[in-house]
Write a structure and sequence with these properties.
Elements (H helix, E strand, L loop, with lengths): L1 H10 L8 H15 L11 H8 L3 H13 L3 E4 L3 E4 L6 H4 L32 H8 L23 H13 L15 H15 L8 E4 L2 H12 L5 E6 L3 H9 L3 E8 L2 E2 L3 H4 L5 E4 L13 H14 L2 E5 L24 E6 L11 E4 L5 H12 L4 H12 L2 H28 L5 E2 L6 E5 L6 H10 L5 E2 L12 E5 L5 H20 L5
Parallel strand pairs: 4-5, 4-7, 7-8, 8-9
Antiparallel strand pairs: 1-2, 3-10, 5-6, 9-10, 11-12, 12-14, 13-14
Helix pairs in contact: 2-4, 3-4, 7-14, 8-14, 9-10, 15-17, 16-17
Length: 509
Amino acid sequence: MVILSDWLAAQIDKTDAEPVYRQLLSLMQQAILSGRLAPGAKLPSSRTLAGDLGIARNTVLHVYDQLSAEGYVLSTTGSGTYVADTRPDTAAVGPRAPRATEDADAPAAPAAPAAPSSCPRGDMSVRGQRLIDEAGVSARQWGAFMPGVPDVAEFPARTWSRLQSRLWKSASHDLLTYAPGGGYRPLRRALSDYLRVARSVRCSPDQIIITTGIHQSIDLTVRLLADHGDRAWVEEPCYWGARSVLQASGIKLAPIPVDAEGLNPRDPDLRHPPRMALVTPSHQYPLGMVMSLARRRTLLEYARQHKVWIIEDDYDSEFRYGSRPLASLQGLDESDRVIYVGSLGKLLFPGLRIGYMVVPERLAATFRTAVAELYREGQLMQQAVLAEFIMDGYLTSHVRRMRTLYGERRQLLIDAVTRHFGDALPVMGDEAGLHFVLGLPESSDDREIAAAAYDAGVIVRPLASYYLGKQQRKGLLTGYACVPHENIDPAFATLARVIERHAFGKRAA
């Protein structure tokens, strides 16, 4: 017992911010799990241990009580406290089975060191490892020229705060519990009115399901309408995030090329109807073209005939420059085959994490039940604030103001491209959205250029990361929305030097 007391005394730091009780409990647990205190060993009395450690006896009593409650020790009145036998039952566990690629008779090879912040490969499922290997998420989410990110500094935070304060003052229990299936009804009603006017979406409030964003909307759709191993058409190239959601759900992806009129399935594709098709018809991501009316009608008729579900990802169509926003594909659908998904993140601020989906009326009750069953949604207070924000007209005025602001920044960036490169590098897909694609010479490596730009302090995304098959074009996704006017020229000058060095082999400009 003296040895235990000495060991504990050497480990406990009474000047540490962590309470002595927590330190002693952790040390006793460690001693039992490591075998320092063997099963059946008798612990010193609380009075003796407290005296040896110079701490209050009540502290030791509390530790012993907690150890007993967690099964580390057994206490018998009049006899004392003993270490419980918590060793695994080896008969139940059985010997470790060798891996399929491992020689059971060979000595174990030393494990290769895992990459920082990653799981060892042996711990991951096949689809989990694929998800991590192909992840497109960036460590930085803000700055020149991060594509797809709005200028959150321009968000009317005071207006939002005022609406939020007013709601909190009279907050009822209904706003502080789980969200009802489908989300806060006044928000669903406000969104249905907004979508009918702004996006020509045909819907009622009952058809709207509130989610945390497009990723969750796609995930819910796949869980309800597809099975593991089903095929899905995806645009080639397409948004890596949506692609990851589909693959993680066990969906087999069939990349369909896009041209100037959008999705362009060939005869071999048409002979094998998919379970679903994921499209961005109003502003193809990432290339920016618009699906023609003829292609839209063809896709809808094909979906009707072959019972294909269409997921329409309408991620930033409100920001269109030089013309009014285009009507949705869903508004043309007469057969209820389109699931329309959108998000408020690019209109307001990404951290809001409120999205929505519009589902056919016959599926609405099913989706409401599923979203509550799988995700136990909340954030009703935020949904209530957003409903007020929309109904009071603030969303419409904010979108109108930001469309003008982003249009100015878009033009400044295009002018910078022209000054540095003339017409040597094409600008593609700049008619709408928050980014365009800056074309590169076919001999260049856009991944290498994006990495070099990142090291130089500029964020762009290589077009290569959006292709599932062989890359057809070289380019950089270049965002302008979150870059203040005065920062565009100097930031692009940095990017231009990187491009000159890596794409043309010239001197740094």
